[in-house]
Design a protein that fits this description.
Elements: H1 8-14, H2 28-38, H3 43-66, H4 70-87, H5 98-115, E1 124-129, E2 132-139, E3 149-155, H6 162-175, E4 179-183, H7 189-193, H8 204-215, E5 220-230, H9 233-241, E6 249-253, H10 260-269, H11 285-296, H12 299-313, H13 318-325, E7 340-345, H14 354-361, E8 365-370, H15 385-401
Helix pairs in contact: 2-3, 3-4, 3-5, 4-5, 6-15, 8-9, 12-13
């Protein structure tokens, strides 16, 4: 049942910001006002309501800055960036909708303007990656701007961008004294929206150049670099750690050894024999057609798989999606040499394999469970992100301190 918005999908996308309220990324009244404005409207109405709100806050921020109210201006610019990010999720899909790019550009500009305000302004950096560069930010912990400190690199999954990770995780970590690094990789944010670069399963190839740049920064304790991933990042971060040995710890929210398993189960449920999935190009067209029909008949699945999954992975049909998705797993002989924290929320399907993930990683892994009774039973604990951050950062404090 929708919480604020009339449309189920609008409600899913529009209420993400509730998790950001404790960290300055939203206000309940503003989200509720957008929901009322959208009403029974379509995706265009949803998009425009969020963009209008973001534009208004940017205008208020500019006025505050001119009047010398720097703190207000910073707050307004940053919150506007989150609202612009809320606007375009229903528009996902190839070819990229120009409105999505326009809102993303406003999101990035507002985020940059907010971070540039204050005694220690932060600017974006570019990380060399193959034939292009990744957009990134190194944000020092307040009060420790020139100190060598433990540093957390945050990685997103399918849906989120730098702005989301800032409010969902980085603000809490900054308050705890951790320097934070945020970046978009292939299949995410700028690289997908503006460069058209799809995602890849071998995330170690993405994280290694990020660690190269981070480790060269004078304020980073090179022996205390941590990688944290949420949503699909709960697979990407451990996959990266299996090939990148400079990490002091890994956080996987939720812990995921193989994304391929859910795709495998879906295909088998539609009639694909298990052995055919070892050679997905041999899956019968009748099975592919059944999978397509199920997805097309369900608006939520259509968005997740066709609009998002095809686009992010750079494929055009269900067969391509299955073949690509089956590559998203850690090798059977993969090893992770640093401590690993795997979360599991009670009602999160992606978290269902977290216990198995911990077992496969071995003694270096810890399972941290979250329940609906705690208000944290949903995907990535979005309905109680403060609990998630508190417990995860406590674990990280203890883990890094235990090294002596």
């Amino acid at each position: 049942m929708p919480l604020l918005f009339t449309n189920d999908q609008h409600d899913e996308f529009g209420t993400w910001g509730l998790a950001y309220i404790p960290y300055g990324g939203a206000d309940f009244g503003e989200i509720a006002a957008v929901a009322k404005q959208v009403g029974d409207g379509d995706d265009t109405a949803f998009y425009q309501a969020w963009v209008d709100l973001g534009d208004r806050l940017v205008g208020d921020a500019s006025t505050a800055a001119t009047a010398g109210h720097a703190d207000s201006a910073r707050e307004l610019y940053l919150r506007a960036s989150a609202y612009f990010a809320s606007a375009y999720h229903p528009l996902y899909g190839a070819p990229t909708d120009p409105r999505l790019v326009a809102a993303f550009d406003k999101q990035t500009a507002a985020f940059d303007d907010g971070l540039a305000i204050g005694p220690h302004p932060v600017s974006s950096i570019r990380i060399p990656y193959e034939d292009t560069t990744l957009p990134a930010y190194l944000i020092p912990a307040p009060g420790h701007e020139t100190e060598r400190r433990p540093t957390i690199i945050f990685t997103n999954g399918y849906d989120a961008t730098i702005t989301d990770m800032y409010f969902a995780s980085a603000v809490a970590a900054l308050r705890r004294g951790y320097h934070c690094v945020l970046f978009d990789g292939p299949g995410q944010g700028e690289l997908l929206y503006k460069q058209g670069i799809p995602m890849r399963p071998d995330w170690e190839a993405v994280v290694t150049p990020v660690v190269d740049v981070v480790a060269a920064q004078s304020i980073v304790d090179v022996d205390s670099i941590v990688l944290s991933g949420w949503s699909l990042g709960g697979f990407l971060a451990p996959r990266a750690a299996s090939g990148e040995r400079r990490l002091a710890a890994v956080i996987a929210d939720p812990g995921t050894w193989s994304v391929a398993d859910s795709v495998r189960a879906f295909a088998e449920g539609m009639g694909a024999p298990p052995d055919a999935l070892e050679h997905p190009e041999e899956i019968g067209q009748d099975v592919i057609d059944k999978m397509t029909a199920v997805v097309e008949s369900n608006p939520a699945l259509h968005w997740r798989i066709v609009q998002r999954g095809f686009w992010v992975n750079g494929v055009t049909d269900m067969r391509g999606f299955v073949e690509t998705s089956l590559q998203y797993h850690l090798p059977d002989d993969a090893t992770i040499t640093c401590p690993v924290l795997a979360t599991a929320a009670e009602n999160d399907l992606l978290g269902a394999g977290a216990a198995s993930f911990v077992e496969r990683v071995g003694s270096r892994a810890t399972l941290m469970s979250f329940t609906a009774a705690e208000g944290a039973g949903e995907h990535c604990e979005m309905t109680n992100r403060t609990l998630l951050n508190r417990r995860v950062l406590d674990w990280l404090d203890d883990t890094l301190n235990a090294r002596g």
